[in-house]
Every structure is written in C-alpha cells, then in structure tokens.
C-alpha cells in the first residue's frame, strides 16, 4: 500500500491570483509588519491569503526567493506581543533566524516562535508555507506558556507531534471553506492539542492555576451541553480538580457549576433558534442543548429571555425573509 500524502497546507493559494509587486509589499508590511526583499522576483508566485478560525489566524503564502525582516513595533493590534506563531512548510525550505539562532524548516516541518522578538525568514526557491497566530492568552488559559524562548521545534519523531502536525495540515487545507461553527470548534481543539508539546523536554513549561482550571471546566461544559448527564462531578473530573474546589471557583464568580451549565445551554439554544440556516424543530434544539423534555426547555427559555423559543425562531426567519425581499 502506498503511503498517503498529507493535505496541502497551502491549498488556499490555489484559488488566489498573483498580486502586483506593490500590493505584495503592502500585504507583507500591513499583515506581518515585515519588510520583504527578493533574491529573484517571479511575479506569478506572489500569492498569499489569510483567514480566521475561532481565536486562530491562518495565513498561507508563496515565499520563494524572498527574505522577510521584522520591522520595529508590535504590529497591528499589538499582535506581535500577544501571539505565538506556528510555522509549517509545504514545499521548499524556509530559514528562520532569531537572536542569533538559525533553524531550517523543510517539507512539513513545524516550528513555534515568539514574534515579539525580531526575526528574519528566508525562503528558498519553490517555497510555500503556512503560519498560525495563536493567542498567548489562549495557551496560558490551558496551562501552556512561553518563557522567553526564541524558537521551538517539536520532536519530529514523536507520534504525538506527527499527529498534531497532520491535524494542523488538514485544518489549513480545508478550514478556509468550512462553516463558521466548524471553524471555531476545530480551532478550540487545535489550541487544546498544543498541550501535546508540553511533553517535550525542551518545550515551554506547563503551569497550573485557578484560571486554568476554571477555563478548562467552562470549555468542557460548552462542548458537552448535549449530554443530559453533565453534572458537577464530570466537570470537576474534566478540570482535574475536586468538586469542592471547582464549586469554589464558580462561587467566586457569583455562580455555580450547574447554573453556568443552565445559562450556557439556553444561550446555545438561542443561537440555534436565530440561525435561519439551521432550520431545526424546537424539540431538536432542546435535545442538542441537553434538555430531555421540550416542554421543560420551552418554559426555561421563556423564563430566561421573556419569549418562547418558537417566537424567537419565527422572528429570526421574518428578519431574513425581509432582508432577502429588499435585496431582490
């Protein structure tokens, strides 16, 4: 059996047209806050695109025979100080230099870099790559942070790392055209899976804190709203703490675990009902949000929002219908 090829992490470029040279320089400057110079200029290769998935920002580019150098400053929205960048190559070689240390990325290599420190990247001929901006706050909420490291290359021989790289590649290949809901869900899971890197001896250090436990609990609740058995015990187990401790953390926010579950379920239901593309029955919405009894769900929803689920759904459909008729 022939080995299966990994998805093309730069497949989004296949739908792009080449940019004029000035537009290319503007894109590199505005999005990456870097200066671009060419070893050999091939105008047909000046292709780049970017898209968001949840908290993650993806970008793909053909960087053949180009050198990008960081400019002074933190970039738009302070992104250099607030994110970690994960690089993956699809073809060719990218050399990165930061604080006197050089690293070469070959086909399907993965590297994590803190862009708050100036760096230079140089693409060889026929080089395409992809980068993901990961918020530091999202990593820290999961107990993972970077402690002044310049660049970090995970152990390429690790099966866990290979699995993570494969998932990143698949996400980059298909994520741009996926639905907003799927984008957010997959992005959240990818950030979770970055914790795999904490098992590497040279990886950034994992920390435990009340914020990490609370964030883990809330993520678990959000992803398991359809489970009618969702309770204090299961939430505490998912967060890796005792029931008493997790109850104390929610109490500090003026709530309880089950009150948070209840509110989150109703907010999810409201989002489903106002999404005209979903076109779900009230009983289906109740089931997806963890309510076994549609009548019980309707009472709880009206108590929370002052309107019945059916009224909210019909109102949303009327708004869409009016907008469509005005467009026609």
- When the domains are counted, the total is 2
Give the low-pLDDT segments: none
Morphology call? globular
* Total strands: 11
Largest sheet: 6 strands, antiparallel
Mean pLDDT across the residues is 87
CATH class of the largest domain: Mainly Beta
Distance between the termini: 54 Å
List the helices and strands in order: HEEEEHEEEEEEHEHHHHHHHHH
CATH topology of the largest domain: Jelly Rolls
Q: Over the alpha carbons, how many angstroms does the gyration radius reach?
A: 23 Å
Label the CATH architecture of the largest domain: Sandwich
Strand content bin? 15-25%
- Indicate the percent of residues in helices: 40-55%
Q: CATH superfamily membership of the largest domain, which one?
A: Jelly Rolls
Domain HTH araC/xylS-type: 215-315
GO molecular function, one term: DNA-binding transcription factor activity
Keywords: DNA-binding, Transcription, Transcription regulation
Protein name: HTH-type transcriptional activator RhaS
Brief summary:
This protein has 328 residues and is of the alpha+beta class.
Task: Describe what this molecule looks like in 3D.
The chain is of the alpha+beta class and 328 residues long. The chain has 2 domains: 11-199, Jelly Rolls, CATH 2.60.120.10; 210-327, Arc Repressor Mutant, subunit A (Orthogonal Bundle), CATH 1.10.10. 42% of the residues lie in helices and 19% in strands. It is built from 12 helices and 11 strands. It has helices at 21-32, 79-82, 136-140, 159-174, 180-193, 210-223, 232-239, 243-252, 257-273, 282-288, 294-305, 309-327, and strands at residues 34-38, 48-53, 56-62, 66-70, 83-91, 94-98, 101-105, 110-113, 119-123, 128-135, 151-152. The protein has a 6-stranded antiparallel β-sheet with strand order 2-3-10-5-8-11. It has a 5-stranded antiparallel β-sheet with strand order 1-4-9-6-7. α4 packs antiparallel against α5, α6 crosses α7 and α9 (257-273) crosses α11. The longest helix is centred in the C-terminal third of the chain and has 19 residues, at 309-327. The relative contact order is 0.09. The model has no long low-confidence stretch (mean pLDDT 87).
């Amino acid at each position: 059996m022939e080995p299966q090829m990994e998805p093309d992490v730069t497949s989004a470029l296949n739908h792009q047209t080449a940019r004029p040279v000035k537009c290319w320089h503007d894109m590199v400057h505005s999005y990456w806050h870097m200066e671009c110079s060419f070893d050999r200029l091939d105008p047909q290769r000046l292709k780049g695109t970017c898209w968001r998935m949840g908290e993650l920002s993806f970008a793909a580019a053909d960087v053949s025979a180009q050198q990008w150098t960081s400019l002074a400053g933190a970039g738009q929205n302070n992104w250099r100080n607030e994110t970690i960048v994960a690089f993956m190559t699809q073809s060719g070689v990218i050399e990165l230099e930061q604080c006197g240390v050089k690293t070469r990325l070959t086909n399907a290599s993965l590297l994590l870099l803190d862009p708050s420190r100036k760096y230079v990247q140089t693409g060889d001929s026929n080089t395409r790559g992809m980068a993901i901006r990961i918020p530091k706050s999202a990593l820290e909420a999961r107990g993972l942070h970077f402690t002044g490291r310049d660049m970090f290359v995970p152990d390429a021989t690790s099966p866990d790392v290979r699995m993570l790289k494969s998932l990143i590649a698949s996400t980059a290949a298909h994520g741009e055209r996926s639905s907003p809901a799927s984008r957010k869900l997959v992005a959240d899971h990818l950030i979770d899976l970055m914790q795999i890197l904490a098992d590497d001896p040279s990886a950034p250090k994992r920390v435990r804190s009340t914020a990490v436990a609370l964030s883990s609990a809330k993520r678990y609740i959000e992803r398991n709203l359809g489970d009618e058995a969702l309770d204090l015990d299961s939430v505490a187990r998912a967060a890796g703490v005792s029931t008493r401790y997790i109850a104390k953390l929610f109490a500090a926010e003026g709530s309880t675990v089950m009150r948070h579950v209840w509110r989150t379920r109703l907010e999810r239901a409201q989002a489903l009902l106002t999404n005209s593309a979903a076109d779900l029955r009230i009983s289906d919405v109740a089931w997806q949000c963890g309510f076994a009894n549609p009548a019980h769900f309707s009472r709880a929803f009206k108590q929370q929002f002052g309107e019945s689920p059916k009224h909210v759904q019909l109102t949303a459909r009327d708004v869409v219908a009016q907008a469509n008729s005005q467009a026609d």
